Amino acid sequence: MNLSDRIKMARKKAGLTQSQLAESVGIAQTAISQLESGKTLRSSYLVQISRACGVNSTWLVSGEGEMLAPEDVTTYFSSELEEILRGEHEDDAALNAALRDRIEELRSASRYAPSNSLLTEEIPYLIELDDSQDPSKTVVEISVKVHLDLNTEILSKQGVLPEYVVAVAISGNSMAPVLQDGGTVVAHLRETQVVDGRMYVIDHGGQIRVKALYRLPGGGIRMKSYNTYEHPDETYSVREMEESRIRIMGRVFWGASFY
Fold first, then answer.
1. Boundaries of each HTH cro/C1-type domain copy (predicted)?
2. Does the predicted model carry a pTM greater than 0.90?
């Protein structure tokens, strides 16, 4: 994860817009925008940015350590409990009950923990659009309007960057019961080398398909559906792939209905 990714993650963790963060730090909004886009690779305001976002400055600057320092977790925890202690309660039993309830809420609210499991990234969907050159055909494009909010921990564990990730809505029953109609999968666009048995997103002549792939001698592929009764295997040589405009777009690493 590079500096631009960490700044964006920290800002979202704090619930701030770029303008709000810039105002807190005392710099222009364009400075934050350039940092998050990677156009600017360093800044003398990184410590101030970390303080404004409430994250570990060492993590923000270098990527080392946890996003939220242990002492910050303790501060959050202590301040919440002190507020309850200052409140009015009928008796000790009521106070203890209030403390137990709040402790449980804090444990489950992972935004207070270094795991950052409530942080999300906007992942764009792949969609089929009418071909401007031939209305009878479609082309596969990345949507600029529709996105999936995906947990950043999923991306981190897979070692992928959000800019190389897309979501795909499942249509039909060809991959049932593993993938159900209406479900969603997420794929990494930089992984197009076929590993036998893994699932991939495919642009098949302007149609989005999700299939398990197997290599064939000579560079061809075999597409496998899990619902083999209705959807038998399909095989394509390299030449047939070119003629059918088959393009492997990326490996599926997450799905709403099966992982």
1. 7-60
2. no
Among the listed residues 140, 150, 154, 123, the one whose alpha carbon sits nearest the alpha carbon of residue 253? 154
Residue 110: what pLDDT?
39
Q: What is the DSSP string of the chain?
A: --HHHHHHHHHHHHT--HHHHHHHHTS-HHHHHHHHHTS----TTHHHHHHHHT--HHHHHHS-S-SS-HHHHHHHHHHHHHHHHHS--SSHHHHHHHHHHHHHHHHH-GGGSTT-TT-EEEEEEEEEEE-SS-TTSEEEEEEEEEEEEEEHHHHHHHT--GGGEEEEE--SSTTTTTS-TT-EEEEETT--S--TT-EEEEEETTEEEEEEEEE-TTS-EEEE-S-TTTS--EEE-HHHHHHTTEEEEEEEEEETTT-
pLDDT of residue 162: 85
Identify the CATH homologous superfamily for domain 3-62: lambda repressor-like DNA-binding domains (1.10.260.40)
Q: Could you tell me the CATH superfamily of domain 120-255?
A: Umud Fragment, subunit A (2.10.109.10)
Question: What are residue 234's phi and psi, to 5 degrees?
Answer: -120, 135
Q: What is the pLDDT of residue 234?
A: 97
Domain segments of the chain as ranges: 3-62, 70-112, 120-255
What is the mean pLDDT of the segment spanning 59-72?
A: 68
Q: What is the pLDDT of residue 73?
A: 47
pLDDT of res. 257: 55
